[in-house]
Write a structure and sequence with these properties.
This protein is an alpha+beta fold. The protein has one domain. It has 2 helices and 2 strands; from the N terminus they run ααββ. A hairpin with a 5-residue loop joins β1 and β2. The longest helix is centred in the N-terminal third of the chain and has 7 residues. The protein is elongated.
Length: about 55
């Protein structure tokens, strides 16, 4: 399934890490010093929305 991607990138693709990109759950991260995070959502049409939230 990832053969084309691996050839294009000229590297191995970790299938588990790649699948994690399509998750609706965020990976854990440390609270930023700025107190803000940015969330970008890209739909299947390629439309992007970016929103900055205070945490």
């Amino acid at each position: 399934m990832y053969e084309k991607l691996q050839r294009a990138l000229r590297t191995d693709v970790d299938e588990a890490a790649w699948a994690e990109l399509y998750s609706r759950k965020s990976r854990p991260f440390d609270r930023p010093d700025t107190g803000k995070i940015a969330v970008k959502v890209i739909n299947h049409y390629g439309d992007e929305v970016l929103k900055v939230f205070g945490v």
